[in-house]
Input
Amino acid sequence: MNPIEMAFAKLKALLRQEPARTVDALVERIGNLVDRFPPHECANFFPAAGYQRSM
Output
């Protein structure tokens, strides 16, 4: 799985916990979930996917 797929998998799991029933509610929900993706966690998606850190 690549880093983008990992982020979307997490987003989908979070969205399933409290499903939105309208497009507007979905957009608002995604906006509220952005804080659940801290930079250090997103950075960890890359080594988990097999990418090596460049020097």
The helical segments are 3-17, 23-33, 39-48. The chain has one domain: 3-48. Residues 3-48 form one domain.
